[in-house]
# Entry
Amino acid sequence: MNIFFISGTDTNVGKTEVTIGLMRLLSNQDKIVMGMKPISAGIEKIGEKDLNQDVHKIMSEASASSDISKINCYSFDQPIAPHISADKAGCKIDFNLIQRNLNYIKKNADFVFIEGAGGHEVPLDNNRTMADLVTNLNVPIILVVGIRLGCINHSLLTLKSILSRKQKLFGWVANCIDANMLEIDNNISYIKQKMPAPLMGIIPYQEEIDTEAIASFLVWPD
# Structure
């Protein structure tokens, strides 16, 4: 069983796009692929349903259907930080529930990708962060680095968090999210020198998200 946690250097760096791109990459290789977004914030009308856009994309890319409550354990209405959302909803995020749902989803899958929310150290309550969830699940990380001004600092700080917690970094993806950024190649080259895991792909800036195109820019390490 191959289970990976998709973490990010910040919010809005393209974790969902990389998640569904990886799902498509492996689906194209005839693998059975499932995805999870245990914690989401922000609900909108999609068709006749009220749900999170990222969750919708992950469910649409999955090899098989599954109960949304298994894929998205905690769904908060407003697009705000998880610890604030949970506090306003009067609930505590239960890592054991997320683990049980993962155990259910992985039963018949070759690969499972778990997308985080926000950056790697985003708080889930006063004492725990998304990084604590990764430690609890004990799965390797694929880090999405949003390539924009400040990305070197963000990537190195996130890497420091991962290594200090003795978590396993499986690989990383450079996602170009600023159409006007200068010296993209030099920034990616510097980060590549510092990362103790393979670069799994460089995704160029896209005005419109194209999952098949994203998958074509990704490479699964041998």
Observations:
- The mean pLDDT is 95.
- Residues 151-164 form the longest helix (14 residues).
- Residues 12 and 28 are 26 Å apart (CA to CA).
